[in-house]
Amino acid sequence: MYFPSKRAIRLCCIVILCVAGAAQLAAQNAPGFVLPKITFGVEQADTPGEVSVALQVLLLLTVLSLAPAIIIMVTSFVRISIVFSFTRMALATQQMPPNQVLMGLALFLTIFIMAPTIKKVNTDALQPFIAQKISADEFYELGITPVREFMFRQTRETDVALFMHLAREARPNTPADIPTHVLIPAFIVSEMTTAFKIGVLIFVPFIIIDMVVASVLMSMGMIMLPPVMVSLPFKIILFYLVDGWNLLVRKLVEGFV
Questions:
Q1: How far apart are CA 186 and CA 157, in angstroms?
Q2: How far is it, in rounded angstroms, from Cα 202 to Cα 212?
């Protein structure tokens, strides 16, 4: 690791001080040069409405900062991203494909899969709300309904029962009786369970290749040669011959239809 010398450090300090001094001198001599002043303060509210508006703005900013994570958790992104990670681990290609490529593909597949749901939310809830035909409460109810329908199709009953028990809710008679705050974690757990099942199936053929290669190398007395280096080309060839990406993406998309 490179460490700068004391002379270089002194030179950098001198340059920084000279720049700071020049800026201060320019601010004193130039009448048109004004340095900005940033202040943060808390003032007394004259009416309760001012406090309410401030709290609403704070809540809105908080929701907007968490919006990407919330949207990702209620879509097909969870399963797709986990399956892609398992695939790369099974191939043992280290960082190939890069993480940005896998997550980008997972994102676009999520948009492709969620397109009918997004279209329904836009038609039934967003456009009427923009046109001021429905209230905010109606907008929420109409907008969350297609998303709940999508999550119900992918959620296992055992996971729903688990979170209903943890929330100490009564036994539901219809899907409408299941609260959204119970459905979302049940959906996420179901998606992770399904992704792990797919990951096991992906690992099996590649583990067999690793075992065969390791057995052949040991029988030849080549114990110093890492089996992973020899099995990697065979795994890539197998993945190419079966058109792995096409098969994997097709099965992932069909699993949500």
A1: 9
A2: 17
Burial per residue of 182-205, b for 16 or more beta-carbon CB atoms within 10 angstroms, e otherwise: bbbbbbbbbbeebbeebbeebeee
Q: CB-hemisphere CA count at 13 Å for 187?
A: 25
Local structure of residue 46 (DSSP, 8 states): S
Peptide bond into 97 cis (omega under 30): yes
Query: What distance in Å separates the CA atoms of residue 51 and residue 30, rounded to the nearest whole number?
Result: 42
In whole angstroms, give the CA distance from residue 201 to residue 184: 26
Per-residue pLDDT for 50 more than 60?
A: no
pLDDT tens-digit readout, 153-173: 888 888 888 888 887 877 878
CA distance 248 to 238: 14
Distances (CA, A) of 189 to 70, 156, 196: 15, 9, 11
d(C-alpha 23, C-alpha 180), whole Å: 57
In 3D space, the residue among 199, 172, 206 whose CA is nearest the CA of residue 186 turns out to be 172
The answer to whether 136 and 129 have CB atoms below 8 angstroms apart is yes
3-state secondary structure of 71: helix
Cβ neighbours of residue 194 closer than 8 Å, sequence gap 6 or more = 79, 154, 255
Instruction: Give the predicted TM-score (pTM) of the model.
Output: 0.68
Q: Which residue, 202, 235, 209, 232, is CA-closest to 83?
A: 202
